[in-house]
Design a protein that fits this description.
single chain, 259 residues, mainly alpha, 7 helices, globular
């Protein structure tokens, strides 16, 4: 039963992310390499953020101190998101320079740019999941499980899996939304991403209240699904608008069929 519970929680937390990777990312070798590079960058960023609080551990248990820590963490990650945007634009320019030297260069589609954004968002979500959940999930393989007094309705591992799923969806699709907003100059669309991120982070504080998980987890899952729907709608709008104007080399694929 321990292994069944471990596998179930692992699939809840990471199953949708694996489906996204298998469907959209793994067919293009360049996107896989981009995921690896971005995952390493996000891991370094999370480690540096944890070092900021090394001298303050353990944090005081009152809400103000924890909210301040979450605010700093979100600010660092949103600054890194802007760094990812700069990397994204440099990639687009580099692909354009390659295209100028290639015969039969093709126009890059907005779908290609969205795949680049999705790969970077997937790297953010996957690194967040590994750092905050999968690193301690093997404890589930012990002889018992763990329940918290504030959330006796579900085990600590199940609650963590649902929270991880919510943040995985939020981080993955927020990158698509943010990059589209920055690309098109839609400031409100871009600003909605850090606001949603901060709101989701602060919402986890509700888990400290008795039975707070029954309210926070559904809301966080709804926020993650909303980001997925918003990203899908953004991609649909861009597909209807037609291809981008710039010329670039097509993204290299890892399969002979060219998908």
């Amino acid at each position: 039963m321990a292994f069944a519970g471990f596998l179930g929680c692992a699939l809840i937390a990471g199953g949708p992310g694996l489906a996204i990777f298998w469907t959209f990312i793994r067919r293009k070798a360049f996107l896989v390499l981009l995921v690896l590079a971005c995952s390493f960058a996000w891991l370094v960023g999370l480690l540096l953020t944890s070092l900021l609080f090394r001298g303050y551990v353990p944090l005081e248990s009152h809400t103000g101190a924890l909210a301040a820590a979450l605010l700093v963490g979100v600010a660092v990650q949103e600054a890194m998101r802007l760094g990812c945007w700069l990397l994204h634009r440099k990639l687009v320019v580099a692909l354009g320079q390659v295209a100028e030297k290639m015969e039969g260069a093709v126009r890059i589609t907005r779908e290609d740019e969205q795949l680049l954004a999705l790969a970077q968002g997937w790297a953010h979500g996957a690194t967040h999941s590994l750092f905050f959940y999968f690193s301690w999930l093997p404890l589930f393989l012990g002889k018992g499980t763990l329940y918290l007094d504030e959330c006796p309705q579900m085990s600590y591992f199940l609650a963590g899996a649902l929270l991880t799923l919510a943040f995985n969806l939020l981080h993955t699709f927020s990158m698509v939304i943010a990059f589209d907003g920055l690309r098109e100059g839609r400031r409100k669309q871009w600003a909605a991403v850090p606001v949603a991120h901060l709101g989701a982070a602060l919402l986890t504080l509700v888990n400290l209240r008795p039975s707070g998980c029954l309210g926070s987890i559904p809301l966080l899952l709804l926020l993650g699904l909303t980001s997925a729907v918003a990203a899908g709608y953004t991609c649909w709008q861009n597909a209807a608008a037609g291809p981008a104007d710039a010329r670039h080399a097509p993204l290299p694929t890892s399969e002979p069929d060219g998908h």
